[in-house]
Amino acid sequence: MKSEIIFLAKPTDAIEKIYDGYARFFADFYKKLSIFHLVHTLDLPDIWVRDFLPVQHPQTKKLTQFFFNPHYDNYTRAFNEKIRRRVAYYFPYAQTQNITLDGGNLCIAKDTLFCLWRPAVFSQKNLSAKYRIEQVLKSATGVKQVVWLARETGDKIGHIDGFMQFLEDTLFVSDERFDPYLRSLSEKRLAQIRAVLPKINIVFLPCVPDVSNPLSARGVYVNFLATSRAVFVPQYHLSQDARVLAIIQAYTDKPVIGVDCAPIARYGGAVHCLSKEYYV
């Protein structure tokens, strides 16, 4: 069986000033993670460790560091550089690649890597850049092919872990059929996925968007963390919470553990965004 160490950002006063509620989320998540895995906390300027910590090759264990340069309103050039310096301190042996790609935009199913295409990654007209980036991604993750899924117009985040997540032989997808535009986009993405994984079992998870805050991840249940020993699923104090746990439990023999993400979801993420696993 695989053995993972799970990394989280350490709750500090500086973090809490930026993300009020992270300490409460951390206390619940850390306690539940620790039952199944060794958990390491890192003293970092930011909490979205999935996005900016290095990517690990599952066989060679080699680490690759991509360029974290988000264009969210609360990120400045100095803050981004502070994150990069801190990550380099903890992972000095990671091979750096000058590719602007967040870890939350990587979703792997066996030998296929799925990403949402964004202009910051490469221009669709620049085929040589696309080829080079795909070769780097294949080398970093051990996959045989890279599939670029259609992106939402105006999407500043571009993270695939808010749309889909694999668990064993099942693909869980955020149910966006409530919105005509998102439904059309979702259908286009699923057609791309079925073209390369024709036998994949697709299950829709409820999605309850926070209409008062477009950045919020509240109600995005697909942002769960599946490890070798358990599945940690966001809970938002919504009526769908228990139903989502039951749906996921029907497709796995692993324990399915609810994690209270209500204190932190308004900032744009849940358990998958806030954790990073490394195999030892």
Q: Largest beta sheet: what is the strand line-up?
A: 2-1-15
Structure annotation, total helices: 7
Query: From the helix content, strand content and strand pairing, which structural class follows?
Result: alpha/beta
Order of helices and strands: EHHEHEEHEEEHEEEHEEEHEE
Task: Indicate the low-confidence ranges by residue numbers.
Answer: none
Radius of gyration: 18 Å
Main sheet overview: 3 strands, mixed
Report the portion of residues in β strands: 15-25%
Secondary structure: helix percent: 25-40%
Number of strands: 15
Mean pLDDT: 91
Query: Shape from CA axes?
Result: globular
Could you tell me how far the N terminus lies from the C terminus, measured between alpha carbons in angstroms? 11 Å
Write a structural description.
The chain has about 280 residues and is α/β, with parallel strands linked by helices. It is about 30% helix and about 25% strand. The strands form five sheets. A three-stranded mixed β-sheet has the order 2-1-15, covered by helices on one side. Strands 3-4-5 form a three-stranded mixed β-sheet, covered by helices on one side. Strands 6-7-8 form a three-stranded mixed β-sheet. α6 (about 180-195) links the parallel β10 (about 170-175) and β11 (about 200-205). The longest helix has 17 residues, at about 180-195. The relative contact order is 0.17. The model has no long low-confidence stretch (mean pLDDT about 90).
